[in-house]
Design goal:
Layout: E1 20-22, E2 28-33, E3 37-38, E4 41-42, H1 49-62, H2 67-76
Antiparallel strand pairs: 1-2, 3-4
Helix pairs in contact: 1-2
């Protein structure tokens, strides 16, 4: 079974080439999505964990995702590389 890769900032599944963010040299970043990371930098440098949780919650609700999936994702986010202290 292939292990899923998730953005280490927002938990978006990185399941397509176009989902991956980019490093400074335009190579694919293997840790972050295109929405969180471009050209080797976070797109929202000052976003807090709470703001990210609220943002993900809103986006997933707009996409019509089930509440249990949203809650699991929100529980996962604080454990991701960007947020884990």
């Amino acid at each position: 079974m292939v292990e899923k890769i998730y953005c280490q900032s927002c938990a978006m599944p990185l399941d397509r080439d176009e989902s991956f963010g980019t490093n400074v040299d335009d190579s694919k970043c293997q840790e972050y999505c295109i929405y969180c990371y471009k050209k080797g930098e976070f797109t929202e440098t000052d976003i807090t964990l709470k703001e990210m949780l609220d943002k993900v919650d809103n986006i997933m609700k707009q996409m019509g995702m089930a509440a249990d999936i949203i809650n699991k994702t929100k529980q996962m986010i604080p454990e991701l590389k960007r947020w884990k202290k």
